[in-house]
Each structure stands twice: as C-alpha cells, then as structure tokens.
Write a structure and sequence with these properties.
2 domains
C-alpha cells in the first residue's frame, strides 16, 4: 500500500507556484520545494511522478493567472487593444510568470502554430473579437492577430526583462499605431512580401 501523502497535490502545486512567481520556474526543484513545504522531498514524489509533472502544473496555473487578466475583455472597447494592454500589465506585474508562459525554451521544433495552441482560449477570443469588430474573415483575423501579437510580445519582453521603462501613454500609442497600420494594410488588399535584394546585384553579375 503506497504511503499516505503528507501534502495534497493542490498544496504542493500552490507552493511550487509561489516559488516560480518569485524566483522563476528554474527554482522549482525538489530540494527547494521541500524546504518551502517544511519537509523533505519525499511527499512531492508521493503525489507526483517527477518534478517535470510539478512544473507542468505550475505552467497551467500561470496561464490561468494570465487569462484572469483578460477575462473581461469583452466589456471594453476596443477589446483587442485591452487584451494587449493587460498582457503588458501582466508582464510588468508578474515578470517571472510571463517568462514562464511566453518565454520558456523548447527543443527547436516548436512552430508558431504550436505556440499559439499553448496559449489557451485567449487566442480564440482575440480572433473572434477581430472578426466581430472589424468584419474580417477568419484567415484575415488570424493574420492580424499574429502581426499585432508579435509586436505586443516584443513590448512585454522589454518590460518583463526590465530592459527599459515605457510609460502607459507610450504603450497605448504603440499598440494603436501597430494595430491601425496593420488593419489598414490588410483591408487595402495591397499587402505583399517584400524580398531583400542586394543593391546592384544584377550589375555585379554582369561584371562577372
């Protein structure tokens, strides 16, 4: 008969979440978690197979924490800008959790689509908002989301990493300019990929 757990799974996950929130997911190791619980690491491995399973549960909680920031987006207009502002606020207030949700390393095989699938319902809600508010098809809304999300993500990285200080007014202006510019280009139907070519490449080839 397996030993009775001294702590429940929920208690262990919550303590691991607190460690990750303060010090980052790399600090969520058996020794540190046991110390925070006031015990050895044994109760952890009674409730979980390994520390990777604990860390996965912590990531799930971190994503739920972010989703709580944007849960009421439909009560605001423009709703998508509100989501962007709250994402940046999350990065400012919870830099370790932001890094855990959005900046963890993968094995190099992670595609953009796979990343979007990891972000939960937020992506779906944002695309639906764009379709509703700007009369876009699903592919158009998905393309617009991708463009603006990448821009917003860049701002989040700057503030989460304390690379520089950006005021709320500057953030609001940046988000509006990027969104309106991308939307106008999409609506115009003139968007095309511009290749990067070497200047005078043809002349160089002729000279050879």
């Amino acid at each position: 008969m397996p030993p009775k757990a001294k702590y429940t799974r929920e208690e262990i996950i919550q303590k691991a979440f607190e460690i990750a929130r303060e010090r980052g997911i790399d600090a969520v190791v058996a020794r540190e978690l046991g110390k925070a619980l006031g015990t050895s690491s044994s109760p952890i491995f009674t409730a979980f197979k390994n520390m990777e399973e604990v860390q996965q549960e912590v990531r799930r909680l971190a994503l739920k924490e972010f989703e709580a920031y944007v849960r009421d987006a439909l009560n605001y207009t423009p709703a998508f800008k509100y989501v962007g502002l709250k994402m940046i606020e999350f990065a400012m207030r919870e830099p370790k959790l932001f890094q855990l949700v959005y900046m963890r390393e993968h094995d190099g095989n992670q595609t953009y689509s796979m990343l979007m699938n990891e972000l939960g319902d937020t992506v779906r809600v944002c695309i639906e908002i764009m379709q509703r508010d700007y009369a876009l098809s699903y592919p158009e809304a998905e393309l617009l989301f991708r463009q603006v999300w990448l821009h917003t993500f860049g701002i989040c990285v700057l503030v989460a990493g304390k690379v520089c200080r950006i005021t709320p007014e500057e953030i609001s202006e940046m988000l509006s300019m990027e969104f309106k510019g991308a939307l106008m280009l999409l609506k115009s139907g003139t968007f095309r990929v511009e290749p990067v070519n070497r200047i005078n490449a043809a002349a160089d080839e002729a000279a050879e």
